[in-house]
Amino acid sequence: MASSTVDLATKDRGVLFNPNDEAKAAGWGTDDPYVHLAKLHDGPPVVKGVLEDLMGIPRQYHTEMWLGDVYSILSFEAVNKAFMDSETFSNRVYEKLSKPGLGDTLLNLDGGEHKRLRNVSKPWFKPSFTDGWWTNMWTISAIDEIFDRITAKDHADLNLELCAPLPMSVVSAGFGIPASEALEFRQALLMHASPEEMAKGHAFAADMLTRLMDERRAKPKDDLISRFVHADIEQADGTTRKMTPDEVMRYCFLIIHAGGGTTWRQLGITILALMNHPEQLEALRQDRSLMRPAIQEVTRWYPTDTAFLRYVEKDTVLEGVEMKAGSVAMLCLGTANRDRKQWEDPDTLNIHRPAKRHFAFGAGAHACLGQHLSRQEMEVALGALLDRLGDLRWDPDYPPARMGGGTLIGRGPEALHVRYTPKPKQ
What we know:
Elements: H1 2-11, H2 19-25, H3 33-37, E1 46-48, H4 51-55, E2 70-73, H5 76-84, E3 89-90, H6 111-121, H7 127-150, E4 155-157, H8 158-163, H9 165-175, H10 179-190, H11 195-218, H12 224-229, E5 232-234, E6 240-242, H13 245-275, H14 278-286, H15 291-301, E7 307-312, E8 316-318, E9 321-323, E10 328-332, H16 333-336, H17 371-388, E11 389-394, E12 403-404, E13 412-413, E14 417-422
Parallel strand pairs: 2-10
Antiparallel strand pairs: 1-2, 3-7, 4-14, 5-6, 7-10, 8-9, 11-14, 12-13
Helix pairs in contact: 1-7, 1-9, 1-10, 7-9, 7-17, 9-10, 9-13, 10-11, 13-15, 13-17, 15-17
């Protein structure tokens, strides 16, 4: 199933959702945020004001979305408190940002309703399931297909030819979307030049999912759509019921939205970081037990999203700062993940660093549901890269690889042009 999806995804970059293009179209800055965040490290843990203003850069978000005062949460301890207190710092802010047609999802729900909805799919994204079912059924076959293509030559843009197609292929196949329709489905959800195109795209995707749900009710398969349509969801009174078609559809839309872009960008960041630290790349090549620590360290050091948002539900005090109900909190992962009280020399990439919790995938009730799948995809991809691309180096015919995207969200490499000596699969 994954093969045709990979083929389509690598055929033409123009049909893929590109976060860097979206950022440029929105007029967002593309500067390295850490240059600007460095000035905030030794200041107060909570500051009244929009994060971009404090950094001295143009704002990414339209000012109309702010519901009240804005506070930037900067230290590890303060960000942790906000993540863990979802009753005070809720995800309702994303009701202002959600794409039309998604409705209530894990993204903007909180409390018991969020927990009950999340519990439906939680077993399918836990580490044992991602290391087993996802990897054995979908990830390995997608990786093999991708690297068979890459090793047919001696150069590649790994951003386009590996990082972009991998998560789209894995998530689409795992859901049970036929390979022949996967790219068209993703385009319908993501590629919109106008509200009219968005409505048309969502209607197309909804029709496709409705057909697939009907098929899986009658004849289940080993995929997530089958699991969703036959799953029980707990209600507030303790009874259970089947998910409605609308609930299944919104779940699928959200996970497929999120399941491609984050892993795409974070895998690209990891490759760029390791290639720019060749001694650490070589250490990883020699000792694969460093694989998970390396991924953990790169995501701490440079997550694709530098800040998350929360809505302040009630008057509160955080680190001595009074915050009124109706305010917006900007939780800055970029400063929290490099808090000097938590890490020694935090601005330096060090894959030998002892493991310690950080916030690249969020924390608390809204910690990223797919984080284990994302890490596992990156682990398999990096293993194949080390095994099948000998003498891996930057391609001198292209400019040095650089980060693009938004300053606070959706960061990732614009391209990863490399040269290598191809190796067959062992």
